[in-house]
Amino acid sequence: MGCGNSSQRRQANFNFGGFLVMNVADVTKYTFGYVFSLFFIVPAVQGDNLVQFFSGDYGPSPIISVNEQQEEIEEDEVAKKHAAHAKDIAKFPPIGPLPPAKIPADNPQTPAKIELGKKLFFDPRLSGNNWISCATCHNPALGFADGLPRFIGGPDSKEGGRHSPTIINCAYNEVQFWDGRAPTL
What we know:
By secondary structure, this protein is of the alpha+beta class. It has two domains: 1-96, no CATH class; 111-172, Cytochrome Bc1 Complex, Chain D, domain 2. It is 34% helix and 12% strand. It has helices spanning 6-12, 24-37, 66-90, 111-122, 134-137; strands at 14-16, 19-21, 42-46, 50-54, 63-65, 152-153, 158-159. The strands form three sheets. Strands 3-4-5 form a three-stranded antiparallel beta sheet. A hairpin with an 8-residue loop joins strand 4 and strand 5. The radius of gyration is 34 Å and the shape is flat.
């Protein structure tokens, strides 16, 4: 097709410091060939969901899967949604650190009370059957939850209707437990 085959063109070019260096004849062929071929590009379906663009002998003919094209379109749409969402998020001021937890004036924290709280948290003697502690359902190794879809507890160790929530930052909750039956722990 007039400009020689692609292997001859590749041999005439060489790589210099990461840049492709071409002779003047090849630059001319590529420049004018591509400009001319813009008017004669012919898409054709080949095989299963493949589209090949023919532009003569003026460069590579990329083969692009129709599925890949659809994926690229979907990725672009997702990227646009993420960008729009990021702009919405940027409108809000940064949260910053949490304020100190509210501690009742009539029950100040002391190192002894903190240590007692840790012991009580892991002590099963507070339960009705003497074998379930707070840590049974609020396991520190599981983010102070139990990792189950529904808790197992009560006097008969039956599966409950919900999971055990984490107790991380529970000092900031306005109510405690799923049903809000206690204002504090």
